[in-house]
Amino acid sequence: MRSVTILGATGSVGRATLDLIERAPEGAFSVVALTANSNVQDLAQAARRVNAQFCAVADAGQGAALADALSGTSIRHGAGPDAVLDAAQLPADWVMAAIVGAAGLPPTLAAVRRGAFVALANKEALVCAGPLFMEAARKSGATLLPVDSEHNAIFQSFDEDHRGGIRRIILTASGGPFRNASKERMAAATPAQAVAHPTWSMGAKISVDSATMFNKGLEIIEACHLFDLPDDRVDVLVHPESIVHGLVEYADGGLLAQLGEPDMRTPIGHALAWPARMETPVKRLDLAQLSDLSFHALDDDRFPGPSIARAAFRAGGCAPAVLNAANEIAVDAFLNGKIGFLDIAGVVSDALEQAQTEGFGARAPNDFDAVYAADRQGRRFASDTVQDRLQSSKRA
Ligand code: NDP
């Protein structure tokens, strides 16, 4: 029996993980802890269904509501960010890190530090703190299992024992809802249009990231850390069908790839059973029915996100943490109608420029406190830029 904890259990990845656990044969998994931000009802219902030992909400104001929702059970509970940390520290063998954003870094790190098997969906943790995070995993002996579909595909195709034969890796991108849209249409895009992803069903933040392709930028940085590669050996190809998730190119010209329906339960199932395999209810690929698989180069002009992210990764220091923080603020501002879709890239670039001007981004973080400081600073720079843009749009 594998004991598991799910950080971000009420989100898209968290629910898909619960779905697999609940379908698994009796006795395959026991659930130690589940966490959410504020969605007390779904959290409590899930905890009752899987008989979790402990539940936590990050929103301290929801503690009483959680106690209420769990009344009559023996499930222990807590509220506030420390309670989420407590959940991560409980001795589960396997932890799904599926909190969205940099908020996922402290609990994911807590699971890494105690040497757990950590299924990593929360790419923002690696983007913000890559070298320190990987070092923490090396020190504790934690096993990082990539869950992002592209990284999971590469993890399965990457011959770690013969790295010298690997030339490059390729992350595929669906192209999102605006793959063929004109810049005029993108400028006028609404939040509802931006979150309507053509192939994947995901939470709001990553859906907007997919529409801007900042998601691919974050994934390039994630891949560099996970597979210890420079960014010029991490390529991106637009592949609208989302069937080939990632590829590894070898010295002999061969490419190894992993294919599957665009359903997160395949990579989650891979990580959940690793190193074995488990049944999932995912629709099987019917290769005879797949007449067209297409691949295209990225259009940098309409989708500058990946280039901006590459530049931040090359700049090093705190720049990736600033990039991630600014993107979170910009996506939130877009979803709340404060800025337009194309302003997201502008806000991120402005924040990075400001960080560079103030000499902030260049300093390499010595410890996680420096990462958290860079995150706060990135949020401040980006919030100021959003305010400036709001004021000038009101004046216009
Ligand atoms: P969702 O928005 O669907 O879910 C986010 C989860 O995190 C929810 O459980 C939410 O709780 C919780 N949460 C939000 N803010 C906080 C906080 N401040 N503290 C603690 N918990 C918090 O996100 P997704 O499931 O789509 O994505 C999760 C992560 O996985 C992201 O990093 C994303 O990039 C990555 N990922 C997602 C994929 C997908 O298919 N969805 C694919 C590949 C990677 P509540 O419900 O209470 O708000």
Overall pLDDT metric: 96
CATH class of the largest domain equals Alpha Beta
CATH topology title of the largest domain: Rossmann fold
Query: What is Rg?
Result: 21 Å
Strand fraction: 5-15%
Distance between the termini: 62 Å
Taking pLDDT < 50 over at least 5 consecutive residues as the criterion, the unreliable ranges are none
Order of helices and strands: EHEHEHEHEHEHEHEHHHHEEEHHHHH
Shape: globular
Number of domains: 3
- Give me the side-by-side strand order of the main sheet: 4-3-2-1-5-6-7
Total helices: the number is: 16
Describe what you observe in this structure:
- The chain is α/β, with parallel strands linked by helices.
- Helix 1 packs across helix 12, helix 4 packs parallel to helix 5 (105-113) and helix 11 runs parallel beside helix 13 (305-315).
- The strands form 2 sheets. It has a 7-stranded parallel beta sheet with strand order 4-3-2-1-5-6-7, sandwiched between helices. A 4-stranded mixed beta sheet has the order 9-8-10-11, with helices on one face.
- The mean pLDDT is 96.
- The chain has 3 domains: 2-146, NAD(P)-binding Rossmann-like Domain (Rossmann fold); 163-261, no CATH class; 316-395, Rna Polymerase Sigma Factor, Chain: A (Orthogonal Bundle), CATH 1.10.1740.10.
- Helices cover 47% and strands 15% of the residues.
- The protein has 16 helices and 11 strands.
- The chain is globular and about 55 Å long.
- The chain has helices at residues 12-23, 40-50, 63-69, 81-89, 105-113, 123-140, 149-157, 183-187, 191-195, 204-212, 214-227, 265-273, 305-315, 319-335, 343-357, 368-395, and strands at 2-7, 29-36, 54-57, 76-79, 94-97, 117-120, 143-146, 166-173, 234-238, 244-250, 255-259.
- The relative contact order is 0.11.
- It binds NADPH dihydro-nicotinamide-adenine-dinucleotide phosphate.
- NADPH dihydro-nicotinamide-adenine-dinucleotide phosphate (NDP) is lined by residues 8-14, 36-39, 58, 84, 98-100, 103, 121-124, 148, 200, 202-203, 205-206, 264.
